[in-house]
Amino acid sequence: MTPDSRKQLRKHLRTARRSLSRVEQRRASQQLTRRLSKTSLFVRSRHIAFYLAADGEIDPLPLLHRCRRLRKHCYLPVLHRWPSTRMSFQRLLPQQRWTRNRYGIREPLPNRKLQVRPWRLDLVLMPLVGFDESGNRLGMGGGFYDRSFAFRHRRASWRRPALIGLAHQCQKTEALPAASWDIPLDGIATDHELLLLRPDLRMPLRLEDNQG
């Protein structure tokens, strides 16, 4: 796929998700929350990274609220001022103070003491523009997530964190060619389906997993 064709595909898929009505967006978010919250991956994860939806992205905020009620540790990405190509994951506080990054997206007021290394997370819920069934992800083009998880290139498999892309079903597309720097997803969750690509992520819940 050429840069121009990737750009055109990104434009087409962004238009598709922005065309969803508020009712459709809300319903999709609720369906996503129900689908993910029942998985053993979610139940067993204690440190979970989210994002704040923008530009028609499917909204994981109801799932984040559920995590906080369950006393899981929730994190959001925070962009670095320097180097400007980097980002960190920062734990949310009960009384969180906020700012806006260079893209106008709300994020926690940076506090290095609350930021963790990406490999310390159990589960990362990632935004995307497009995806295919093989776990290839088309992002916005900034490369922030690929750089954050570039350590996964060092060996064939990593148990932590599990990288799950979130999307509307309309963002599914044909096979996406992967660049050498792309970090493949471990799964994709939409309002219509849950595709877990690693066998260990499909382990069934045990009775004790649901206690509490």
Describe the structure.
The protein has 212 residues and is α/β, with parallel strands linked by helices. The protein has a domain at 1-133 and 193-207: Rossmann fold, CATH 3.40.50.10420. Helices cover 24% and strands 20% of the residues. It has 5 helices and 12 strands. It has helices spanning 3-18, 22-37, 40-44, 61-69, 144-148, and strands at residues 47-49, 73-79, 87-91, 98-100, 106-108, 115-116, 123-127, 130-131, 137-138, 162-166, 187-189, 194-196. The strands form 3 sheets. Strands 6-3-2-1-7-10-11-12 form an 8-stranded mixed beta sheet. Strands 4-5 form a two-stranded antiparallel ribbon. Strands 8-9 form a two-stranded antiparallel ribbon. Strand 1 (47-49), helix 4 (61-69) and strand 2 form a beta-alpha-beta unit. The mean pLDDT is 91.
Approximate helicity band:
10-25%
Major β-sheet annotation: 8 strands, mixed
CATH architecture of the domain at 1-133 and 193-207: 3-Layer(aba) Sandwich
Number of strands: 12
Shape assignment:
globular
What is the helix tally? 5
Regarding CATH, which class of the domain at 1-133 and 193-207? Alpha Beta
What is the CATH homologous superfamily assignment of the domain at 1-133 and 193-207? NagB/RpiA/CoA transferase-like
Assembly level: single chain
Mean pLDDT over the residues? 91
Low-confidence parts lasting 5 or more residues at pLDDT below 50?
none
Rg (C-alpha, Å) = 17 Å
Q: In percent terms, what proportion of residues is strand?
A: 15-25%
| CATH T-level fold name of the domain at 1-133 and 193-207 | Rossmann fold
Label the structural class. Answer: alpha/beta
Q: SSE string, helix = H, strand = E?
A: HHHEHEEEEEEEEHEEE
